[in-house]
Amino acid sequence: MTAGFSYTQNxxxxxxxxNERVLEEACADEVPLYERLKFIAIFTSNLDEFFMVRVxxxxxxxxxxxxxxxxKTGLSPSQQLEKIYHAVEPLYKKRDRYFREVESALRSRGIxxxxxxxxxxxxxxxxxxxxxxxxxxxxxxxxxxxxxxxxFVASKAPYVAVELQKKKRTILGLIPMPAALPLVLFLPGxxxxxxxxxxxxCRFAEEAFPAYPVLSRNIFCxxxxxxxxxxxxxxxxxxxxxxxxxxxxxxxSRLAPVRLECAHPLKGFLFDTLSEKLGLSRPQIYVSHAPFxxxxxxxLSQKMDEETQRALCYRPFQPQLVRNSVFDFPRGQxxxxxxxxxxxxxxxxxxxxxxxxxxxxxxxxxxxxxxKEAKLIDYxxxxxxxxxxxxxxxxxxxxxxxxxxxxxxxxxxxxxxRVIYGFEGFKxxxxxxxxxxxxxxxxxxxxxxxxGNYNEKTAAQYTDLSLITADQNIGRDAAEFxxxxxxxxxxxTYKHLMVAPNCMKSRIxxxxxxxxxxxxxxxxxxKVNSVTDIDVINKLAEASCxxxxxxxxxRGICCLLPGVPGHTENIxxxxxxxxxxxxxxxxxxxxxxxxxxxxxxxxxxxxxxQRRVEVAVPIYAPHIRERINHILDIYFRxxxxxxxxxxxxxxxxxPQYKTGLSAQEQFMAEALENADTEKQRGExxxxxxxxxxxxxxxxxxxxxxx
Length: 706
Prior knowledge:
Strands 14, 18, 19, 20, 21, 23, 24, 25, 26 and 27 form a ten-stranded mixed β-sheet that branches. Strands 10, 11, 12, 13, 15, 16, 17 and 22 form an eight-stranded mixed β-sheet that branches. A six-stranded mixed β-sheet has the order 2-4-3-7-8-9, sandwiched between helices. The protein is of the alpha/beta class. It is globular. Helix 9 (345-356) runs parallel beside helix 10. The protein has 17 helices and 27 strands. Strand 5 (184-186) and strand 6 form a beta hairpin.
C-alpha cells in the first residue's frame, strides 16, 4: 500500500515538535516554578544533542552527495536542513521568552540570575575582586592575525569574542572560559543569586587585552557534529574495539561545526570573521538570551531551604520497594517492576543474592547505559570473584556514554568477568539478565527483561517496566540468546522472545496481519518512544483501512500522521510529557484471552528493527497481564499531560486538561498505596507472630504451674 506522503511526516521536524512539548511545560501553571526552569534546561540540552547528532548526520549526508532521500517526505538532506533551521528559529524565541518569565518569577522568590550591569555596591566589588584574583590569572586570551591563526574552538564551551583595534586594522580577540572555574558564581548575602562566568569575562574583557582598544564584544558557543561511527573509514583505527572506541571519543570533539549561538546578534566584523572561520552560514547562527549551558539549574535546589523547596519543587517522591517471592528463585511468582514508581532495588538484591548463592553457576547480562556509580557492577564483580561465570555484553557505542562503558568494561574484566562488545554494524540495545542455578544437576533459570537500562539514576527519572520471571521457557530462550551473542550469531529465531534484527520486525508485521483478519474486532496498542519505520507505518495504515482500532502512545518522534481520510482514520496517537520521561515500550495485539502482550527494548524505528539487537518478551502471567493492561488504560485516560497528534502534524491538549487525570500522578498514588498495603501486611504478619509467640509462652508457663 502506498499513498505518496499523505500520512507521513519528517522525523526531524517531528522531533522538534516533541522538544517544543517539553518546552511548553515551562509555562504550565500546574508545574512548580523551579521545575519549569528545569524543563527549559532539558529543552536546551535536548536541542544541543539534536544538533550534534541529527543535524550533524544530515550535514555529513549533504556533503556526501546529498542523495539519501527521506522515505517519509522525499526530502534530500540539504532540504531537511533548510526546514530544520527555519523551524528552530522560533523555538529559540519561545525558549527565551519563557526563560525571562520564569526568571522574573523566581526573582520574586529570592532566586536571581543576575546581570553584571545591575550589580551595585558590595556585589559589584565582590564580582570584580573575583575577576581580578581568580579569573584573570587563569585566562588564555588570544588575538587572531597573520601570526596568530584562528584556534580550535571546542564544542559546547562558551567563548568571548572581542573586536580589537590594532593600529589601523581590526583584529579578533578570543577568550575561552577557564575549565578550572565553575560557570556560575554565587553571590554572598540573602537569597540565591548568581552571575555567569562568561558575563564576567565579557564585561571586563578589555583588561585581558590591555594593548588594544575594544570596539565590540559578544559571547558565543559552537556546537560540533558528534555523529561518529566506528565503521567510518576516516575514524577507524585498527586493533582492539575498546581501544578503537577510546580514540573515537577523542576525535568526536574535533568534528565540523554545525551551529553557532551568540548572546547578542552578530554584526559586521564579528559576524564576517566567525562565520568564515567556522564555516557557518546565517541560518546556522542563533541568538540565545538564555545561557548556552544550563547544567547549573539542577544544583539550585540544593541551595534552597525546606520551605522554598516545598513551594517551588515537585513534592518529593521515592520509588517504592516491592516484595515478592520471585526473589526466592527459581520458583517464585513473576514480578513486574514499574520504574520510577517502584524501586530497582529488588532486582539489584536479586543479583546480589545470586552472586553469593552457592547454587548459582552463572549470571549473563547485556549493558547499554549505567550510572556513574553502579551497585550492579559491584555485584557482578563479586559474583565473578565468588567463582561464578559472569558474561557482560557491554555496548561501547552507547552515544555519549562511551567512556563510561569503557571504564566499566575494564573494571569487570579486572574482576574476572567475561566481557564482549557486540557486533560490527549492530548496537546491542536489549536489556536482558539471566541467572542460572543448578538444582539436582538441572539448570533452573530466573530471567529479567526490561524496557530500560540498568541505570540506577535514570530508574528514578524514566518510566520503564522490568519483568522478573521464573518461566523456564523464557529462560531457555534467554540462554540460547546469550549463546548466540557469544558466537556472533544474529540469525537465530526463538520460540518465545522476539529478537531484532532477525525476527522482531517480521513478527510484528505478522501480528498486525492477524488483527487485520479480525477487521473491526481487531485492536492494536503501541506505547513507544518513536515511530519511524516506513514498513511498520504502511502496515498500520493497512490495518486502519481494514477497520482495526489502533491506539498509540508515542512520546517523541511519530512519522505516522493519524486521522488521514482513506488511510489512517482508525489510528489515534497521543504523547505524554510530564514529570518523568516516558520510556517504556509495550506492544499489544488483540483483546481478552486472545491478546498477545509484550514489553520491549525496541521502538518502532528502522534502526531498532534492523541495526540493533533488541528483545521483546511475551507476558504470560495473568496477574502481570492484568497490571499492564491497567497501565495502558490509565495512560489513555490521561487528559492532564496527554496531547493528541492531529492529521496536520500538530498536537492538541484536552480542553479540560487543567482538571484532568494525570497518569503519572495516578501511578505515584498507586505505588504509595501498594507500598502501604505491603507494609501493613508485613506489620500484620509480625503482630500475628508476636501474638502466637506470647500465646505459646503463656501456655508453657501455665502447664509448668499445673
